[in-house]
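Quick one: structure tokens for this chain, please?
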Amino acid sequence: MPDVEFVNLFAVAAIALGAPLLLALLPAVRIPAVVLEIVAGIVVGPSVLGWVDPDLPVQIVALLGLAFLLFLAGLEIDVHRLHGRTLRVALLGYSATIGLGVLAGLGFGAAGWVTSPLLVAVTLSATSLGLVVPILKDAGQAGGALGQAVIAACSVADFAAVVLLSVLFSSAGASGGARAVLVVMFVVLVAVTGLVVSVVGRSRRLGSALTRLQDSTAEIRVRAAVVLLIAFCALAEAFGLESILGAFLAGAVVGLLDRDSSSHPRFRAKLEAIGYGFLIPVFFVASGLRLDLPALLADPAALARVPLFLAALLVVRGVPALLYRKAFGARRTAAAALLQATSLPFVVTATQIGVTTGLLTQVTAAALICAGLLSVLLFPAGALGLLRKT
């Protein structure tokens, strides 16, 4: 057996188990488990106590967790709801987001904090769809007009942010124009693959076999989804793109093919069990392990970036919600603004790519992640309070 130690991975898995369990035992503490996972990773990691290191096993599982996180984000997107005025408003809102993000990036660049204002714009432009949808459901708004508008805006933001990050800031080294062509070719190939899978899946003989094996130890639909995920990640890397684009599109394709889930109602629950049950929490804890907190705390000027990044996130993603004011009123529009400004997973992903490509320093990346943590702590609670009052 290879000389690999699993002590650090055990510690990370134990944190992933303990974080939601602790929150369940303390119902008065209303924070998402992901926040506690990252904070725990910071505390036990090299930045504070130094008990756990992000060694090779942790890094490998964390990489799979990132892929599964983007896969499940793509799975959340319902393309059949993205049409008409809802889609137009979402696209207009994201255009405003990018414009505001570039202005914010230029301001931070003038202060000497970043070297790529566009990377800051893209980093601030996404919304955590997986965190927003449960809040809307909790408030009874997910199926209403406001909920659908926010979900559409988040879906467009997530998809566009992943594409822009892959096109403009891939660590592969190709020029932006060449990467744009590669993205188009890759998306076409993904669409063709999805079409082929859809046609093959209509075979009665194959369909009967899938139904027979889907709830057996074969778990054939889950295995097929994992194969598609890994294949698209590998294909994206072969095209010189970020693997996150392949993971995201794999989820979107699976979601599109899984429109009629009457014959396999537990399929998505099984995928979420793999992701949220093991892989994704490891990614968030590992993100905390890698956070350079001492450098952020050592310099008051660096620490001051956190509230400014948080304010920028609220402006960049929240101001476009004013497009809803006429239809939903001031209070519900403010709630939508807070929800759209809730972002953490993509911030973590984008900052890691920024550090890898040399466009972000460790200190700036840590400040952005801390701002994302605060957005998840503060914004959903404020939005839920406004929606409940409504």
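The CA atoms of residues 24 and 30 lie 9 Å apart.
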